[in-house]
Fold each of these.
Amino acid sequence: MYTVETTKCARKYLDALDAITRNRLVEAIREMSSDPFSGDVKKLSGHHLLYRKRVGNFRILFEVYERRLFVVIVDVASRGEVYKRL
């Protein structure tokens, strides 16, 4: 099992969403504790540890630290916003 933590930026974005969308994204984040690479996950080019997980029109950007079994949710946003924040 991986330990999953979210940054303040990601939590703030999730809190501002409607309940249905937030629940869908939170469920996707919870599933990452068993396998962060399941689903539609791709490594972002040009970033050493950064991956993205697609959940509908939203993206979850995260880093995985395999040795410590640790996942950090760096950012969550819509597809149009998330890559501008990098």
Amino acid sequence: MIAAGVTPFALSALKYGLFALLVLFIWRSMRWVVRGLNVEANVAASGADRRGRKQAPAPPAGPSMVMVHPPGGGKPRAVKVAASMTIGRAPECELKIEDTYASQQHARLFGKNGAWYVEDLGSTNGTFVNDQKLASPAMVQPGDSIRIGTTVLELRR
């Protein structure tokens, strides 16, 4: 039964629009599940202890401190660099930032073969090194800036 004043075209458009929303919802849900599985697999493969903290070797030479400049021009804080640090809003991140534009597990800073790298962990808004958006892990050095959401991280020796 068609309501008065509603054309068959409008009903078809509504039907296909709702179908598109359903497909988008399922795709986003599956993407979220797969990311969660990847994070758990990476933690298990990295040799984490029972509390979830990584037992990694000493970091390579390079930056030893990260200055965290919070959004809105708040007071920066210094954080000592670990061998591998997950950066984001989640409580389990080694470097937790309070930024609504940052993902739960946004990026990772890690040492490999004597160099330091930063990689985006599939964040919504991306990770930027010296105002260049990351497409793959990038080598970083003291003096480089990493932008996650509206928070800027400055690497220092």
Amino acid sequence: MLRSKLLLAALSVAALGSACAPVVGQNGFQAIDAKPTDIVAGTDTKQTVLGKLGTPSTTSTFERDNVWYYVSQVTEKYTYNRPQVTQRSVTEITFNDSGQVAEVRTLGLEDGQQIAMNGRETPTRGRQLTILEQLLGNVGRGQLPRTEEDIPGQRRPD
């Protein structure tokens, strides 16, 4: 009896302890053979970077061929909470016009900025419809065919 109570207590403590452990997720670029820090400015080219790191996570919007980004992040999620980003790495590789690496920058989580979203909405013309008006708004608006020529799917006599 005492042994079964101890076993039940140990199992419940283990279950509660595992419920508090975070679920860790790794997203984005994952270095396998080479790391972004292995890229050397002035010696590597676009082809060698593609060979070492693979295709970039994204490219620059305005300089698509000259700036590549390799992005990775680690998130932790506890039971009912939103995932929290605990680690982020953004490697920016800039190429010159001849295709050689001009600069390699590595940015972390601390380099990011929080952007406050603006909750205002642009007003639209017209009036707000209630749910009933939306559901029943088109009832009775359909027109019945006035003549035989208006019936869809039938040929007009020539």
